[in-house]
Amino acid sequence: MQSLPVELKLKILKYLNYESLYSVKRTNRQFNAIIDKYKEELPKKEFYSLTLKNLSDNAKNKYVDKLYTPKIPLNNTGHEKKWLNLLKSGKFKQFCIYISSNNERNYQSDLESVRVLLMKRSKRIVNRFMGFYQTNSFYINIPFRLQTIEQVREAYYWLKQLSTCRFVHTGFDNFIFNPEMLKLIFGDDSELIQFYCKNAYLLLNEPNYNNSALKFAAGHLQKCRNLCLNVKGVNEFTDVLKFLLHSDVRITKVNVNCASSIFSHSFRMRDLIIQHALTSTDCSKMIGEIKFHSIYWTRPVLISKAEKIDEGESRSSKKYTKKEQHQYYQPPQDERFKFIKYELINKHNPRIKFLITLWFPVGSEHISVFKIKRMN
Length: 376
Description:
The protein is of the alpha/beta class and about 375 residues long. It has a domain of about 45 residues. The protein contains 11 helices and 15 strands. Strands 2-5-4-1-6-8-9-10-11-15-14-13-12 form a 13-stranded mixed β-sheet. A two-stranded antiparallel ribbon has the order 3-7.
C-alpha cells in the first residue's frame, strides 16, 4: 500500500466512510499527510442539520439527548501568544461569538443561551401510516464571550471541528457566528473555517445585521450548494446586489424569498442583474444561479435583448419553487403557471450565456418567480 501512487491511495480512501477514515488516520501515520492534504475531497462526519438556537433550560431538556463535552487540547501551537495579547489588550471583549438578527436580542442574557444544535438522522422507521427518521440531537456550548485563554481554546476547538463536518441543512435564521470574532480567533486562517452544507438558511432584516450576515456567508459558506436568503423588511438592496454579482463566492446557487420586503416590488433589482449579465466585462464573480421567489414584478424591459427559446404551462408549484423550508410561499396545487425561457448573451463575450426563466400565474402579467442561470 505504501508503494502505491498518491492518486490510487486517494481513490481508495474515498471509498471509506468518516469513521473508517478516522481509524486509518489514527493507526497508519503514513496516511496522515495525504488525508490532511486532500481533506476537502475525503469523507466528513455527517449531520442532518446545524442550527444556532437560543436554548432555555427547559428547551435543553426537551430537544437534546446529550451534551458534547470533549477534552480540549491545552495548547494550539502558533495561536497561544496571539490570543494572550488579544486578551490583554481587550480586543476579545469588543465582540461576542454570536450576532442576533434581532437587535433587541444582542444583550448578554439572550446571547448567553445560544447553543450550536446538531441533529443526526439514524434509521428510517416505517409504520402502516407513515415513514420517518429517528433523530438524535446534541448541543455544543461555545462561550459567547471569550474572557480567558481556556474559553478561546474551547471556541477554537469547536469551530475547527464543525468545519470538518458536512450538513444537509444549516440554519442561521436567528443567529450567525460573528465574522469579526472568527478573524480574531483564527487570524489569516479564518477563511479555512467553512461550513460544508447542501442548504444554508440566512435571514436578512436590518442593515447593520445584514452587512455582518452577508460577510459571514461570503467568508464561511463557500462550500454551500444552495443559500436561501429570507428577506424581511429590507428597504435597501445594494448589499444584497453586491453579494450576488461581485462577491466572488463559490456558492452554487442563491434563492431569495422576497415575500416580506420591498424586493417583492423592486423592479430596479431585476434590471440591474440583467444589465450586469448583458454588459459586464467580468461575470466571473456573479453567483451561477439566482432565483427570486414571492415577487410581483413586471416583465423586464431588457428582456428584449434576449432570445425566447421556450414557453409553456405548469400546474404544480413544485415546478418553480423550493419546498424544503417554510420560508417559501407555497401556492395552491391547482393554481396554473406560465413560464417563458430566454437566452441572454453577454455583449462583450458571446461564449458567456445566461438562461432567464420567468413564471407568471396564468391570467396575470406580473412575474411571481424570476431565475437567471449561467449556462457555461
